[in-house]
Amino acid sequence: MKFARIVGSGIIPLKLSMRQSFVTSLGEKRESRNLLVALKLDNGAIGLGEASSSLAWPKDTPRAMTPLLRKAAAGLLGNEIRNLKSLVGITWEICAQHPAAAAALECALWDAYARAQRVPLWRMLGGRKRSVTTSLTLSAWPPARAALAARRAYRLGFRRLKVKVTGRDLDEDIRRVAAVHRAAPRARLWVDANQGFQTRQAIRFALAVKKMGLPVGLFEQPVFKGDVEGLARVQQEGKIPVAADESARTVKEVTALIQRRAVSAINLKLAKTGLWGSLKIVGLAQKAGVRLMIGCMAESAIGLAPSVHLACGTGAFRYVDLDSHLLVVSPPCRSGFVTRGAQLLVHPTSPGCGTQLS
């Protein structure tokens, strides 16, 4: 029997404008410089992935990622796509120092593999459900601007809002969260500090919003990524469930967090661990009773599609934060999912991620 082989590859720079300035404790971003990764099979199928630059991981730049992606893609040529696991291993071995690059090429491999099998990726990953409901992220803007954005988001159907805080001005951070709550009083709020707080400061913040009755259901990465004990203290003393993001970049780090019982949730992102690593983390978290969140970087709809398929396929995520395609201006394409307000729906029959470039 003949199996499809990888016969070509492409690395295409993408310069994506942010629809609004994206502001976190790590800085401000007005555009995202990404890389589109394509793999072509000898049957004509093309698998796609996307590597996003990020304020959180400044070393993952297009300039740093491009030569590694070219080297890894060249090593895949001529291989049968059915050898998916070994091909993913080659990818991560070469691109290990830049996980966003490795994950993008891995996603292209999975997409090509599912297309070769003529199976939608979400079904290949479990087929649990066809849709998920996402939050919408509000940057660390002045309180009045954040409130205006919250009001608009609620009108569009978003009932979960993630509010960025910085830790630089505790009073302003609290005012921002309070303003968002007043603007959308029925919305559930998550707060994301991107490592901005010191431990005691994070505890003060958590206790303050709790005392004010603000409906904050999750406090994401309040302290420095290496401060596991700080995460545990904020959760214990702040009385709000804590999620790890920057502290959970590898399967090894996630394992340590779970063993320490430092957090209530893990924010899983394909740009950190790829699809195979993400599936390992899902298994670890479910076994330990730790909740799962799925997030994103600044990918276009092309790069976000594998995450949507993973969320739908596994049905494993209590917290879904897959909104990057709403924050950037995506290139022309037929996306692998449909957006209806806060709902993301995968196509039931399109093979792979279902994404096609225009």
Characterization of the model:
It contains twelve helices and 16 strands. It folds into two domains: 113 residues, Enolase-like, domain 1, CATH 3.30.390.10; 235 residues, Alpha-Beta Barrel (TIM Barrel). It is of the alpha/beta class. The model has no long low-confidence stretch (mean pLDDT 96).
Topology, please?
Layout: E1 6-24, E2 27-41, E3 46-51, H1 62-76, H2 84-95, H3 99-117, H4 121-124, E4 131-133, E5 136-138, H5 143-155, E6 160-164, H6 170-183, E7 188-192, H7 199-211, E8 216-220, H8 228-238, E9 242-244, H9 251-260, E10 265-268, H10 270-288, E11 291-294, H11 301-314, E12 319-320, H12 324-327, E13 333-334, E14 337-340, E15 343-346, E16 356-357
Parallel strand pairs: 5-6, 6-7, 7-8, 8-9, 9-10, 10-11, 11-12
Antiparallel strand pairs: 1-2, 2-3, 4-15, 13-16, 14-15
Number of distinct beta strands: 16
The helix tally amounts to: 12
Q: Share of helix among residues?
A: 40-55%
- Outline the low-pLDDT stretches: none
Question: What percentage of amino acids are in beta strands?
Answer: 15-25%
At the fourth CATH level, what is the homologous superfamily of the largest domain?
A: Enolase-like C-terminal domain
Order of helices and strands: EEEHHHHEEHEHEHEHEHEHEHEHEEEE
| CATH class category label of the largest domain | Alpha Beta
What summary fits the major beta sheet? Answer: 8 strands, parallel
Overall mean pLDDT: 96
Strand order of the largest sheet: 5-6-7-8-9-10-11-12
Q: What structural category characterises the helix and strand content?
A: alpha/beta
Overall geometric form: globular
The CATH topology of the largest domain: TIM Barrel
Rg from alpha-carbon coordinates = 20 Å
Question: What's the architecture of the largest domain in CATH terms?
Answer: Alpha-Beta Barrel
